[in-house]
Amino acid sequence: MLSTRVIACLDVHNGRTVKGINFINLKDAGDPVEQALQYSIIGADEICFLDISATYEKRRAMFDVISKTAESCFVPLTVGGGVKNLSDFRELLKSGADKVSINSSAVYNPKLIEESSDKFGNQCVVLAIDAIENKTMPCGYEVTTHGGRKKTNIDALKWAKQGVKKGAGEILLTSMKADGTKQGYNLKLTKLISKNVSVPVIASGGAGKPEDMVEVVLKAGASAVLAASIFHFGIHSIHSVKKEMFENGIVIRECER
Description:
This protein has helices at about 30-40, 65-70, 85-95, 105-110, 110-120, 155-165, 185-195, 210-220, 230, 240-245; strands at about 5-15, 15-20, 25-30, 45-50, 75-80, 100, 125-135, 140-145, 150-155, 170-175, 200-205, 225. The chain is α/β, with parallel strands linked by helices.
């Protein structure tokens, strides 16, 4: 049985780690390179860098941050934000990223999923879906882009299936309503996607305590849990999350205290 991964997410804005609620009211949470190193030491299974304003501000991806992190950090790195084409994909992988997360660029150019998967392998392609509740959609959720700022009129479940068919090897699923609230993951949304696709689903948005991580795995079928606020501000540790998972029968990788 595969281990359930605990992923530390670093939302980056202007070269600093930040965290807000619903992607707004951002607070400084530290230096991303230093934080990534600490997370790798204390047991994060992966680290996810998301430049949350790159697409909105029409900037390129943060190659320098990734390069510096990869030099000292020895856990897999996923990077997203500002990735527009295969060239960006290639540069991020050369800089030290293990996976590249695409969201807005994939929505507006779905061929990018297929092209990047064919070129670099589907294990490198993470389709990020930022979803909001919309009862007019067949599945009840709509895909958004540009850090949740733009609606697309695309059904989230249909898009997830399409993305996997085109070659996405993983889905990073964020509930925009839950993001940063620490009120728990959106179990309904996570279960909807995870039971209908054949690739791992990373649950994102809303983690407030270790029990939330256990719940989204056991009740909603998530293959990995991602959190930011509770780790950055010392509310809970990666060790406490893994301890809770282990005590609830979830297979995890060992970590430092």
